[in-house]
Specification:
The protein contains five helices and no strands. It is an all-alpha fold and about 150 residues long.
Length: about 150
């Protein structure tokens, strides 16, 4: 069962390679004939550079498989893709983008103000702790002086 599915996928791949490598082929390339060819559609005939690795063997029992692999490779070698770099441009003058930028800048500013406020509060708390500790130290010194003077 699995071997049959693999063979049908390889047959479909062979048909796609033949269609792409043939200059006389007219009509659509049969990518939809198998899951394998649908997955490889962008790689084989799209905007991509593709490497095709062929495994060959010098053993006599693998002669048929090696010959088929070399035929696949020969057809794949004839495929010429025109690759180009994908670019996406943004119109920074767009009103929606400018509004989004303005909102984000306001958010950043409000968060900076909140951070500054928290830092000031932290300083106040630390100063209050220092004052309380100093007050406790003074009281303890007074108690010690009272003990020594008795």
């Amino acid at each position: 069962m699995q071997a049959t599915t693999i063979n049908s996928s390889l047959t479909a791949l062979s048909n796609v390679l033949s269609a792409l490598s043939s200059s006389s082929h007219r009509g659509p390339v049969p990518y939809r004939n198998s899951k394998l060819t649908r997955l490889l559609q962008d790689s084989l005939g799209g905007n991509a550079k593709t490497f095709f690795v062929i495994n060959v063997s010098s053993a006599a029992e693998n002669h048929r498989d090696t010959a088929m692999s070399l035929q696949y490779g020969e057809r794949a070698k004839k495929i010429k893709n025109q690759t180009k770099q994908n670019e996406q441009t943004f119109d920074l003058n767009s009103i929606a983008l400018q509004e989004e930028i303005r909102k984000l800048e306001q958010l950043v500013q409000s968060q900076k103000e909140e951070i500054d406020s928290l830092r000031e509060r932290e300083v106040e708390l630390l100063e209050g702790q220092d004052q309380a500790m100093n007050q406790q130290r003074i009281e303890m010194e007074k108690e010690l002086m009272d003990v020594y003077t008795r």
